[in-house]
Amino acid sequence: MKKVVVGLSGGVDSSTAAAILHDQGYEVIGLTLWLMKGKGQCCSEGMIDAAYICEQLGIPHHIVDIRDVFQTHIVDYLVAGYSTGITPLPCSQCNKTVKFGPMLQYAREKLECDRIATGHYARIEYDQATGRYQLLRAVDRNKDQSYFLYDLSQDLLAGTVFPLGELQKTDTRRIATEHGLKTADKPESQDLCLVESNGSMRAFLDKYLAPKKGDIVDPTGKVLGQHDGVHHYTIGQRKGLGVAAAEPLYVIELDAVNNRVIVGDRTKATQPECTVGRVNWLSMPEPSTPIRTDVQIRYRSTPVPVTVIPLENSRVRVVFDEPQFSITPGQAAVWYDGDKVLGGGIIEQFS
Questions:
Q1: Going from the N-terminus, what domains does the chain have, and what CATH number goes with each?
Q2: How far apart (Å, rounded) are the C-alpha atoms in residues 45 and 50?
Q3: Is the pTM here over 0.85, yes or no?
Q4: Rounded mean pLDDT of 200-208?
Q5: Fewer Cβ in 10 A, N or C end of the chain?
């Protein structure tokens, strides 16, 4: 019998993924990662629901304590980023370093299993011509999570199954209901687990970063108002600035060194290109010459045409056909060929 370890967060997606694989004849083992204390889909409530799902399906359930890993690679990473004026994207980092990597390692070393599965909405295919595993968008484009998975390695793709990749979200709910799963009607997580457990990103950051009053200025340096910490702002932000002006103002730069939030009109928050670091080439080998592709610079943004120019040290320059609004250092830029994720990385700076 084929064996698979399913990552169970206690939500309907991972629960249904386990049920589907169980129906397909797999020997399913549930695995929940203990990431942090408190509320949130990955925490205490999730572990209880995950254990209940395993009992319903008649499968074993393992809990692995990786709170130290989560603290180092996610919490400390976020706090350090916000303190320097960038807006980090924790999910892709969490998927590779905290979730998929440790899960597959545990499966191989402790459970004699070389396959893991999750409830992510994405697809994996093997391309015989290139000898590479390829990451594809989910069939349900509204739920597609491939943007957050660009940083997975070939080894992780080879050992991973996404049972929900071909399904619509409505199908997932229906299957969960048909199996009588406790999580069938459980509300979806609407935000980062850290935000859910703390109430807001501001509340989370305020636990680690002390208020530090500074100036809100225009591009000439004219003081327009005051702020209580650059970590409370992000590029492109319009609401909550507390500055009166004749025209809408947006955050166009965060100067952490001088503790200034720089604001300007929308045109000044629109840029023609950016550099991207920590690049991972996923469904294709690293190119030696520029390529034409589409890029997505945030989870819900529409992919736009670009030229990706390889640089040294796992970096690229992304030149947009049309200047883009709110290019945010710390967020991911992920390039696609249709449904195929070619690669991606972290936005370093715009120009």
A1: 3-198 (3.40.50.620), 211-264 (2.30.30.280), 269-350 (2.40.30.10)
A2: 9
A3: yes
A4: 90
A5: N
Catalytic annotation on 43?
no
Cβ atoms 41, 8 nearer than 8 A: no
Model pLDDT, residue 351: 59
Residue 152: predicted pLDDT: 97
State the catalytic residue, choosing from 43, 94, 113, 274: 94
* pLDDT > 80? residue 40: no
Task: Read off the tokens for 1.
Answer: 């019998």
Catalytic residue among 42, 91, 113, 193: 193
| Spatial distance between the Cα atoms of 33 and 260, rounded to a whole number of angstroms | 39
Q: Binning pLDDT at 50, 70 and 90, where does residue 244 land?
A: confident
**Predicted local distance difference test score (pLDDT) of residue 193:** 79
d(CA 347, CA 315): 10
Q: Active site includes 193?
A: yes
Q: Are 178 and 153 in contact (CB under 8 A)?
A: no
Rounded to whole angstroms, the Cα distance separating 195 from 8 reads 20
List of E strands, 77-157: 116-117, 122-127, 132-137
Q: CA-CA distance, 145 to 118, in Å (whole number)?
A: 12
**pLDDT confidence bin for 46, thresholds 50/70/90:** confident
The CA-atom distances, in angstroms, between 273 and each of 252, 254, 295, 307, 347 are 15, 18, 11, 9, 10
Among candidate residues 17, 40, 18, 234, the one with its CA nearest the CA of residue 143? 17
Average pLDDT, stretch 79-95? 92
Assess contact for 259 and 86: CB atoms under 8 A. no
